[in-house]
Write a structure and sequence with these properties.
- By secondary structure, this protein is mostly helical.
- The chain has one domain.
- Helices cover 74% and strands 0% of the residues.
- The protein contains 6 helices and no strands.
- Helix 1 runs antiparallel to helix 3 and helix 3 packs across helix 5.
- It starts with a helix and ends in a 12-residue tail after the last helix.
């Protein structure tokens, strides 16, 4: 009889362990699916942003989308800053989901933090692409005293 109780307990523990494992697998699958959706949405936005570079720069003026500049060179600079902000947003979202390592995020952060601290108005493109949480993070971690909102931004 005691042997039967031990077997029942072990069976119950096995079932509980299996359910916990299935729950963790479902959570991981959900996170991966969410990351794939974020990646696809950001890729679509990047494709839309870069499409006029295929030969019709005038589309940028018609499209708007936060693209700044009068000359072709200024427009290209604005497009590249906007694209960089979009890829940074994607990296931030992947990092927040735990799918990007700290090392990779530090590399992204170093590149984009430099652009954020540049006081020539680049933040217009950045703010248009950043999520609210990334904008808060950038303001808290990347802002410098010499480049604040009132100083030409």
């Amino acid at each position: 009889m005691a042997f039967q109780k031990i077997m029942d307990y072990l069976g119950t523990l096995g079932i509980i362990g299996s359910l916990i494992f299935v729950g963790l697998e479902l959570q991981q699958s959900h996170t991966i699916a969410l990351a794939g959706q974020i990646q696809a949405r950001n890729q679509m936005a990047a494709d839309l942003l870069l499409a006029p570079l295929e030969g019709n720069m005038g589309l940028f003026k018609a499209w708007g989308g936060g693209i700044q500049g009068e000359t072709e060179y200024e427009i290209l600079q604005s497009v590249l800053r906007t694209h960089r902000a979009l890829t940074t947003t994607n990296a931030w979202q992947q990092y927040q989901l735990g799918l990007l390592s700290d090392e990779v995020w530090r590399q992204v952060e170093q590149r984009q933090g430099t652009g954020w601290r540049n006081c020539n108005g680049n933040r217009v493109e950045f703010k248009g692409q950043y999520t609210e949480s990334l904008l808060e993070y950038a303001t808290e971690h990347w802002s410098s005293e010499e480049c604040e909102e009132g100083n030409g931004l």
